[in-house]
Hints:
about 75% helix, disordered C terminus
Amino acid sequence: MAEEKVMTAPKEKKPRKKLGLTSQIFIGLIGGLIVGIIFNLFIPTSYVRDTIFVEGIFYVIGQGFIRLMKMLVVPLVFCSLVTGSSSIGDTKTLGKVGGKTIVFYLCTTALAVTVAIMTALVIRPGIGLDMSSIAGSEVTVAESTSAVDTILNIIPENPFASLAQGTMLQVILFALLVGILLAKMKERGSVIANFLTQANDLMMEMTNLVMKFAPIGVFCMIARTFSNLGFDAFVPLLKYMGSVTTGLAVQLCIVYMLLLFIFTRLNPLRFLKKFFPVIAFAFSTSTSNATIPLNIETLEDKIGVDRRVSSFTIPLGATVNMDGTSIMQGVAVVFAAQAYGIDLGISGYLTVIATATLASIGTAGIPSVGLVTLSMVFASVGIPVEAIALIMGVDRILDMMRTAVNITGDAVVTTIVAHQNKSLDKAVFNSSEVKEDVPELTL
């Protein structure tokens, strides 16, 4: 008998997994670092090196990307804030839960920026890094203004002039007012609301398009930076990363847990153990939006929060409560100011706190937009945006930790609001969900 040949179907080749934007930017960062150090240490000064590459190709592409980012700031923040505030601006619909949630979110963000600034002032990450050698233009220091003038300058005399000039604190206030009033007008303002919603979608798409060029922009900016500065610039960069990490840890383990205990008398250790799977999921996915379902489910099943509360506050927090991003911005401001030798003063830091707090509302749901609005925060206190060249690549490395802090802040505020609204079942929270014994905290 002839042997029967067994026909086997050819194995299908698995499609190659495409590198994500985070990986691409990280590769651009490492590549630019290596190329910059090679240019600095091994290639002698010449017309080709300095004029064609460092101050030619690297500078043009890097600055072109910076300009694209700056192009997005005003329309992006305005449209995003109007659409966001119009969906949450009807206080009659929101009731006590909505009002308290928004206040707590704004307060935790302001605390986050304050923690970041204080941490950076102690660690001093920008000391020893002379950014003026790569600025490409003379560094200009913002004129000092009093705290009173800083507050009054938030109110625009002409909102259209504020939009044209990019006076962002005024743009933010005007956008919030427009959004709240559109929510109250309902059908009467539907045409404008729909137009701005579509404009917001357009700006999201444009941001995604611009960020596709981020790896190239990061490569060129970092290559130019290290071509001029050499490997000595890496030590302050590590100090910057350490400052951001420390600020995130303080916000998560101290600020949030103190707020939880003060307002609810719940055990912070038990909360962290029950909520840890959500933190781990957020850390691994690096996206607040993807964590929303697990966050709501965990708050209901393990913490005891009424789903009617969490289903409103958690999506809202994923949209407007960006404490991790605010911490990055606060540290970045101090880092860049120290690197450029700029003394911001008390009024400058107050401006940073106000700008980063309000801007966090407009950064919602758009990948990497924290870096876009960071240029606005820099501009508000007169810091050159070229400092983003170093921050951008490292910021992507820290993104996972920022996301974990963001979603934990949403959960803590939700638990506090649910407790005050008598929508928190402490019996569920105190149940033996976690095997290990957790010591009770008492006053």
